[in-house]
Amino acid sequence: MPVALVTGANRGIGLEVCRQLAGRGYRVIVSARDIEKAEAAARTIDGNIQAIALDVTDAASIKRAYDDAMRRHNRVDVLINNAAVLLEENDELFKVPMAAFRETLETNVLGAIAVAQAFVPGMVAHRFGRVVNVSSRAGQLATMSDYAPAYSISKAALNAFTRQLAASTNGTGVLVNSACPGWVRTDMGGTNATRTVQQGADTLVWLATLPDNGPTGEFFIDRKRIEW
Ligand code: NAP
């Protein structure tokens, strides 16, 4: 069965994606920046599960995670770039500290790029891969408002990365897409959110398990393509 790596998988949507992929028989790497949290999360899932430490903002951590994953499985077929932060959500643009922009872009954009740089070349070599960049409608340029400036800009940039990675892997058997999980009850989404983690994970798992003739370079919500 394919091997799937999920970033930021110790809680929320990432953990649920791991659970659903494990339920389909995938070998799942539950990664988190704190190894103890990754191990605790992995213990809550039945199946072929490995916990590893992976801080997406730390190049040495990404390298160690890659080496760990290769030692154990020799390949990674599916990457879910799920780790993200939502900082200064309710600040207006002019008030958001540059440090918040930096941390947001480091995690939500550069983190996803760096992890993909480590893992996607192996997928290209095997002529098989699925990459899901967990984005948000907040990053949709067509409808962009003044909500959560740092986060929204980061998700628009993540979507641009989806297009770049899809173009650069076109025809190699690697399918790359962005998806919004909807408004989900997690630490990030809050208790008023309208969706369960199971509902939020659905489109991400669907994209992670696409058939070979599936789409690439697109943006989805509820398994439907939406404009950028
Ligand atoms: P969450 O509950 O806040 O979980 C975020 C996860 O990201 C945590 O596991 C966190 O780890 C991890 N993380 C943060 N910085 C990291 C780093 N540097 N390295 C590795 N992991 C890191 O959020 P969620 O609601 O599950 O969100 C998952 C994804 O869905 C995100 O990409 C989010 O933007 C997207 N999304 C969520 C909603 C929603 O309504 N919830 C809506 C649209 C999009 P720690 O525990 O160590 O902090």
Verbal overview:
With 228 residues, the chain is of the alpha/beta class. It has one domain: Rossmann fold (3-Layer(aba) Sandwich), CATH 3.40.50.720. Helices cover 43% and strands 17% of the residues. It contains six helices and eight strands. The protein has an eight-stranded mixed sheet with strand order 3-2-1-4-5-6-7-8, sandwiched between helices. Strand 6, helix 6 and strand 7 (218-221) form a beta-alpha-beta unit. Helix 1 (12-23) crosses helix 6 (197-208), helix 3 packs parallel to helix 4 (98-126) and helix 4 packs parallel to helix 5 (149-168). The longest helix is centred in the middle third of the chain and has 29 residues, at 98-126. The protein binds NADP nicotinamide-adenine-dinucleotide phosphate. NADP nicotinamide-adenine-dinucleotide phosphate (NAP) is lined by residues 7-8, 10-14, 32-34, 37, 55-57, 82-85, 107, 111, 134, 136, 180-181, 183-184, 186-189, 193.
